[in-house]
Amino acid sequence: MSKPDLTELLHAAVEAVGGTERPGQVQMAQAVADAVTEGSHLLVQAGTGTGKSLGYLVPVLAQGDRAVIATATLALQRQLVERDLPRTVEALHPSLRRRPEFAMLKGRSNYLCLHRLHEGVPQDEEEGLFDPFESAAPTSKLGQDLLRLRDWSDETGTGDRDDLSPGVSDRAWSQVSVSARECLGATRCPYGEECFAEAARERARLAEVVVTNHALLAIDAIEGAPVLPSHDVLVVDEAHELVSRVTGVATGELTPGSVARAVRRTSRLVDEKAADRLRSASETFERLMELMLPGRLEEVPEDLGYALATLRDAARLCLTALGETRDRSVQDEDAVRKQARASMENVHDVAERLALASPYDVLWCERHDRWGASLKVAPLSVSGMLREKLFADRSVVLTSATLKLGGDFDGVGASLGLAPEGRRALRAQQAQESEEEERAEGDSEEEAPRWSGLDVGSPFDYRKQGILYVARHLSPPGREPSRSDMLEELSDLVQAAGGRTLGLFSSMRAAQTAAEDLRGRLDLPILLQGEDTLGELIRSFAEDARTCLFGTLSLWQGVDVPGVNCQLVVMDRIPFPRPDDPLMSARQKAVEDGGGNGFMAVAAHHAALLMAQGAGRLVRAAGDRGVVAVLDPRLERARYGGFLRASMPDFWYTTDRNQVRRSLAAIDRAAGAEA
Question: Per the confidence metrics, is the pTM higher than 0.90?
Fold first, then answer.
């Protein structure tokens, strides 16, 4: 039987989801099919409106290989599992003669734990949840949430936190969920046969396509113990987020509070000698942390190094003792012991990593007004880890609307452990020439992953739909969030646009300053991130054309408001990382020490990615019109400005403030006429 034509399959799928077939989508689907067939790797930049989900789903389903799709956001996971996959599977069934099974899989803590729900939490965390005299009536918001979770457990078929609406607080959810380390295991748990997490893993094991998140993908790659089912194809959607998500998973943190919690959980389960040694090490660590100043630790101070080593050794002794001693007087001892072991393993592992102070790690101290001091450790780079773990033994497709920064894929490729495009042909030639020699020596250097980059463009005509305006006449931004000339310019632009403004700021303080200032100048609603839930703010912004929404990082990437209600996107300044950011500054210095341009490789790369994402908030549909205004003259004046502009959509470019005001006024009039 002949293989179904990919173009025909894509056409059927697009019809099924009620979409419109795009040339870029067809081009992407063919490239994905070729990469999967050849076992190579592909980076695809697909602009907003391309329909990239079907651009990879159709060739993956047609190929028939087991696949994992990893996304960064809950919204896209839901779209894939609840809309795109069901409709695509049905649309392709007549041609494929099969209905591929698909499933969603998340980390264990995302699922309700029936053992924790019914047997309760370990004693150090359960006090105060309910009135002991009226255990059926909650005495707090936390108690109400727990009762609702108990009722929900009888209704839900998945136990997935994201299926609970409305949601509950993180604190409430932590009472009814467990981490992988805390889990008793299906064979030892009295609720093992009913376990929601185990049911999700079983569905994933049987499915042809598994939808997961970047965090679980990172855990699967980093920890060595596989949590995802074996697969031949990996698709990473929203791939611009992957490096930061992997870095987050690979970051360890140690605080006096977390150590004290581990001490409470463990002391009653081990012998007195081990418990006393642990308490002493914890107290020493806590005293030192009270004196720690925030900032990067180029070297671990001698006293801190000794305290960390002592804490590590005490944790190791307790871990050994936990396996040797049993106390049947402790109610539900297995669960209590498992939680204690999980806490102690975390203390041991992070303390050891901090004490060793590897040159491949970055160490720093943070201070929080409420939580106090914490020590953190993160990998200097995750590129080597990704090259080794992500691209081995499977074909990988990475896609996003923003992968080409400065005009090519090399920056993103390097962050993923991929050789720059220009060097791939040379490396392939060198590898071929030395193959016989390496085979004879039996010591072959790891071959760089083969990959290609493809930009399939966007269905939107950016030069006709949008203007990129740089306020060249303004003063360069300094350390202070308040710039009087910038606020004046912002007010004029918002007034010309008649509201309809998404304000993207480099810090929360800058957003607050701007919101307060414009509320005093303009008779327009100004919404500010933090004054309500993000979802409610975006809903209000999308419903009222005269409304403005100001905020910081999550708005740069998380707002999708097509139509006349978002026609001006303002960036207060180029979003370089803070100079005192320990991890970013360490990465920048490492590049410079290697002879590279650390500023361009790290700071400019970071800013380009955010600016590309932020500018992408403007045009979300074919009929959208508007302006992206950058109130930072460095985008025009500085040498790196061209690199940053080349990373953004190809809008019509100007520095003429009068022209932009006239354009905004015309757009406002047209929008009013449409309304």
Answer: no
